[in-house]
Amino acid sequence: MKKLLLLFLCLVSFYALWAQEKSTENIGQIWLGYFNKTRLTYKWGLWTDLHLRTKEDFTDKFSQSIIRLGLTYYVNDVTKLTIGYAYVNLYPGDNHKKITQPESRPWQQLQWHTQISRAGMMQWIRLEERFRHKILNDSTLADGYNFNFRIRYNIFYEVPLHRKGFTQNLSFVVNDEVFINFGKEIVYNYFDQNRFFAGIKYQTNKQGNIQFGYMNLFQQLASENKYKNIHAARVFYFHNLDLRKKKI
After folding, report:
1. pTM > 0.70
2. Positive or negative, the Cα torsion across 93, 70, 146, 186?
């Protein structure tokens, strides 16, 4: 596991150096999120997550909101398959200054968990089909959609801080997620973005926890040689419910 973590940090360093060598736009944002996983039976459950993100300079307007829903099939307690739909609002930007651009995003996901001594690891592979409404000008949407596929690989690692001097409710968390575009409309940005997060997890109760910390997002834009480097304060709340009837 130490070798895996070392490789993980090397990849993050590589992306940071790459970002410095490119002509990039540096932006500060705040990302807020709510995640709910409700297990209905031993095989089926529901997935919900909601997001709101500021535009720039941490508190200047909004850049994006997301509502994501899904139906989860539990292969077992540590392996899950989810299929769902997300609705995304891209708030006014450089190429649509007076309108919000909507995006529809069906998605499919394989997620699995691994327990390693006191630490825990979660991974997922997610496929998305992105239908982004076309834009005619600064204030008008056009007919039709731009479309591409995107695949995401996410790895999350948690180390409890259950040592003398620390509360049992605290953990150190780190995760990295890589996004790859593909489809006939993709020309320059097959690599879409990388998101690296490091922070603290606080277990509020048996059903919920809050995770807060720093996230760096490095993204290659659709236009050639244009990149975005986002420094974000990220706060996510995770709410897990189990509605199964207990076996007697």
Report:
1. yes
2. positive
CB 177 within 8 A of CB 152: yes
Structural domain of 57: 2-242
Q: How many domains does the chain have?
A: 1
The verdict on residue 117 lying in a domain is: yes
d(CA 65, CA 55): 11
Domain CATH number, residue 116: 2.40.160
Phi-psi region of 212 (alpha: psi -120 to 50; beta: other; left: phi over 0): beta
- Cα separation, 5 vs 42, whole angstroms: 33
CA 105 remoteness from chain centre: 14
Structure tokens that stand for 121 in this block: 């690891």
Bridge partners (DSSP) listed for residue 1: none
Are the beta carbons of 111 and 127 closer than 8 angstroms? no
Query: Please, what are the averages of pLDDT over each run of 10 residues along the chain (248 residues)?
Result: 50 51 85 98 97 90 96 97 98 86 98 91 98 92 96 96 69 97 92 97 95 97 87 98 81
- Residue 247 belongs to a domain: no
How many angstroms separate the CA atoms of 203 and 158, rounded?
A: 12
DSSP reduced 3-state for 95: coil
